Amino acid sequence: MTQKNKFGFAPIETKSEIRPRERAVGPMGAAVREAAESLTEATEAKVELRRRNAEDAKAFRAASEEGRVLHALPLVEIATDDLPRDRLELEAVAASDAMEELKTSIRARGQKEPVEVYRGADGRYQLKKGWRRLTALGQLFDETGESRFATVIARVEQGEADRLARYIDMVEENVVREDLSFAEMAQVAITAAADPALEGEDVEALIKRLYGSLHKMKRSYIRSFAFLLDSLGSALRYPREVSRNLGVEVARLLKSGQGDAEQLRRDLSQAASPEDQARILAAFVAGAGKPAASPRKTSKQEKYEFRVGQTKVTARRGECRILGKQDYASVPRDRLERAIRAFEKALEEESNPRITSL
C-alpha cells in the first residue's frame, strides 16, 4: 500500500531503468578510424609486396646467372670474330634461298629463337650461336632501314665459360639439326686444334670431344674429312660439296699412300666448279684403285716383317709400315715425299729390271 504524505500525494518514484549512453562516432572519429584501418591494410600490402619483390629479384638473379634471361641488343654491338664459324662457305649461305626463307619468316613473325652471345676478352659481345639469324636481321635492316631489325633477341652467357665448351655450343645446334657437312665439322676440329687457348688438344681428341654425342661411325667420317682437308689444303676449293663416300675413299687412299697426291692437288686447284672437283676426285679413286702389276714370283704369305737397323718394316698387300725411332712428323714434307718417291722408284726398277745387251 502506498502511503501518502500530509500533502496528499505519494512519494516521487526514484527507481528507474538505467540505459547505457549511446555515443555515435562523429565525422572526425570516423575519419581517424578509416585512416587507421587503411594504414594497417596498406602496411600489410607493402610487406607482402616487398616479400614478393624479394622473391622475384632472387628468381631473376638466378635466371640471369643461368643465362635464361633474354636481352634486346643492337646488332652493331655483336662481333663474330672470336669463334670461327662452323660453316665453310658463309658468303654462299648468306646469299642462299634458305636465307631468303628465314628473312621472310622474320619479316612476317619476328625473331622467334634467340641467338647466344658472351663477353669477349675486350668486353664486346661475341656471337656463340645463331649466325644465320644474326645475318638475316642484318640483311633486313640494310634492305628496309626499319628499327625493329636493328636489334636481336639474345641470351647472354654469364661468367667465364670453358673455351672448348663454347666450340661445342657453337656446333651443337647445327649438328643436331644435321645441317653441317662432314667437311664443315672437320674444319671446326682443325681450327680448334690451332686455337692457342686449346693448346695440347689434337684434331683426333677434339673430334671426340666436340662430337661426342654422334655415333662413332660419324666421328670416323669426320676424322677422314679432317685428314682430307689437311692433305689437300686450299687445293680442295669446294670441300662442302664433297660427298661422304667419295671423301672417305679419297682420304683412305691418301692415308695408305696410294695415288699421286701432288698431282691430285694440282688437278684440284684447276677445278672450276664442284662438278669438276667431283670428277677429279672420282678419277683419282679409279686410278689409285687399279690393281698393281702381278709380280713374277708370288707368295702365299699375307704379311712378313723384318728389321733394318733399328727400323721395323711390316709388309702386306697394299701396305708397308715403317716403325722406328725417327720422328717422322718433324721431317719436312718435301724431304719425306722425296724419300717415298725414291722408295717407290726402287720397287718399280726391281719389278721391271732393264736388260742390257753385251
UniProtKB/TrEMBL annotation:
A GO biological-process term: positive regulation of sporulation resulting in formation of a cellular spore
GO cellular component terms, semicolon-separated: chromosome
Domain (ParB-like N-terminal) ranges: 76-140
Pfam families linked to this entry: ParB_N
Coiled coil regions, renumbered to chain: none
Protein name, per record: Chromosome partitioning protein ParB
Organism (species): Sulfitobacter sabulilitoris
